[in-house]
């Protein structure tokens, strides 16, 4: 599979995402500078974490207007898969590709710690390989990760099974203490109605190798790759065979 | 002309900054000061003399980028 990892001025988790996709998952990944207006032959797009545009005005508010986001919008409309991590989640909400918004942590603290994530539904390209009942140990590092949505939106999210992950404790309970930022309904990540766009505040790319303390984050990338693989099998290939060599990147 | 824009968090949105400032004021001994909401103030220079055109532009800019309608309200005046 070919992954495109977007790079905005101020993104800082882009290289970690590329590393995991290439060296841990064994797939092709390239960095895509925000000024590019084409996603080339990307099978999926990852919007990484960081502080795009210094979080000026609002986090993700300026990045959403970058040229590459036009290509992402079309990609999404055509059913392409997009995963936003942390700042990526913020950018997707600002761009209207995901409902709701991320605001300042309720504690007003920047929280940098491991959390437990409960997977709410396996019915998505981002969660299909996460075993039932599995609590994932994944780090967060954010000051504006409090997910907010009004009541009608929250009701829709629940009714449509769009809540993918919630913050939980070691007993899988979504308590207030287990919620690091005050997100409504302990929401850590969601998907859109069409289920091809997802965002989460925690960093799965920082939990994909045992040496970093947890490899649970891999399950999210595995889900994506599995889903893409199935989609390729179900759809006759129309494009020329891809090579295994990653496209030249700016790394 | 100058556009003066005030952006505030919507009532339904929790404002922990506002609450923190409120307690800080109380701590400092100010009495009778109630709830605080922290917002943003922008000044934008607008060229030309078309007041109505400026108003439309600023309104659109506020809605599209300067504020996030999911969590913020805005108001402005053009001088």
Brief sketch in words of this structure:
Chain A is of the alpha/beta class and 251 residues long.
Strand and helix layout:
The complex is a heterodimer of chains A (251) and B (79).
Chain A: E1 2-7, H1 14-24, E2 28-33, E3 44-47, H2 67-77, E4 81-85, H3 87-94, E5 101-103, E6 111-119, E7 135-142, E8 146-148, H4 151-159, E9 163-168, E10 187-191, E11 197-200, H5 218-234
Parallel strand pairs in A: 1-2, 1-3, 3-4, 4-11
Antiparallel strand pairs in A: 5-8, 6-7, 6-9, 9-10, 10-11
Chain B: E1 2-9, H1 16-27, E2 40-45, H2 51-66, E3 72-78
Describe the fold and architecture.
The complex is a heterodimer of chains A (251) and B (79). Chain A is an alpha/beta fold and 251 residues long. Chain A has one domain: Rossmann fold. In chain A, 22% of the residues lie in helices and 24% in strands. Chain A has helices at 14-24, 67-77, 87-94, 151-159, 218-234; strands at 2-7, 28-33, 44-47, 81-85, 101-103, 111-119, 135-142, 146-148, 163-168, 187-191, 197-200. Chain B has one domain: Phosphoribosylformylglycinamidine synthase subunit PurS (Mth169, Chain: A, 2-Layer Sandwich). Chain B is 35% helix and 27% strand. Chain B has a three-stranded antiparallel beta sheet with strand order 2-1-3, with helices on one face. The termini of chain B are close together. At the A-B interface, loops of A face helix 1 of B.
Distance N to C terminus of chain A: 19 Å
Widest sheet, order of strands of chain B: 2-1-3
Quantity of strands of chain B, as a count: 3
SSE string of chain B, helix = H, strand = E?
Answer: EHEHE
The CATH architecture of chain A comes to 3-Layer(aba) Sandwich
Number of helices, counting only DSSP H or I runs of 4 residues or more of chain A: 5
User: Could you name the CATH homologous superfamily of chain B?
Assistant: Phosphoribosylformylglycinamidine synthase subunit PurS
- Which geometry of chain A do the CA atoms define? globular
Q: How would you describe the shape of chain B?
A: elongated
Task: Give the ordered list of helices and strands of chain A.
Answer: EHEEHEHEEEEHEEEH
User: Separation of termini of chain B?
Assistant: 6 Å
Helix content bin of chain A = 10-25%
- Estimated share of beta-strand residues of chain A: 15-25%
Question: Can you tell me the CATH topology of chain A?
Answer: Rossmann fold
**Secondary structure tally: strands of chain A:** 11
Arithmetic mean of pLDDT of chain B: 95
What do the pLDDT scores of chain A average to?
94
How many structural domains does the protein architecture of chain B include? Answer: 1
């Amino acid at each position: 599979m070919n992954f495109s990892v977007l790079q905005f001025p101020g993104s800082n988790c882009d290289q970690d995402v590329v590393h995991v996709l290439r060296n841990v998952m064994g797939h092709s990944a390239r960095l895509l500078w925000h000024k590019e207006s084409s996603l080339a032959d990307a099978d999926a797009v990852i919007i990484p974490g960081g502080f795009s545009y210094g979080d000026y005005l609002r986090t993700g508010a300026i990045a959403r207007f970058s040229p590459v986001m036009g290509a992402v919008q079309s990609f999404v409309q055509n059913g392409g898969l997009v995963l936003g991590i942390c700042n990526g989640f913020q950018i997707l909400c600002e761009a209207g590709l995901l409902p709701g918004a991320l605001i300042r942590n309720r504690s007003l603290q920047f929280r940098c710690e491991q959390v437990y994530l409960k997977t709410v539904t396996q019915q998505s390209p981002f969660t299909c390989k996460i075993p039932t009942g599995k609590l994932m140990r994944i780090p967060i590092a954010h000051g504006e990760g409090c997910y907010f949505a009004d009541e009608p939106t929250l009701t829709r999210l629940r009714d449509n099974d769009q809540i993918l992950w919630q913050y939980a404790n070691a007993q899988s309970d979504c308590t207030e203490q287990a919620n690091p930022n005050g997100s409504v309904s302990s929401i850590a990540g969601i998907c859109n109605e069409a289920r091809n766009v997802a965002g989460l505040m925690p960093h799965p790319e920082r939990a994909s190798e045992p040496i970093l303390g947890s490899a649970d984050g891999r399950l999210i990338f595995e889900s994506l790759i599995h889903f893409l693989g199935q989609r390729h099998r179900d759809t006759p290939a129309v494009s020329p065979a891809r090579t295994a060599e990653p496209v030249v990147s700016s790394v | 002309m100058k556009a003066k824009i005030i952006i505030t968090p919507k009532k339904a949105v929790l404002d922990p900054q506002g609450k923190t400032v409120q307690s800080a004021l109380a701590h400092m001994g100010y009495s009778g000061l109630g709830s605080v909401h922290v917002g943003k103030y922008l000044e934008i220079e607008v060229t030309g003399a078309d007041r109505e055109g400026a108003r439309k532009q600023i309104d659109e800019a506020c809605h599209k980028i300067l504020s996030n309608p999911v969590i913020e309200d805005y108001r402005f005046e053009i001088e």
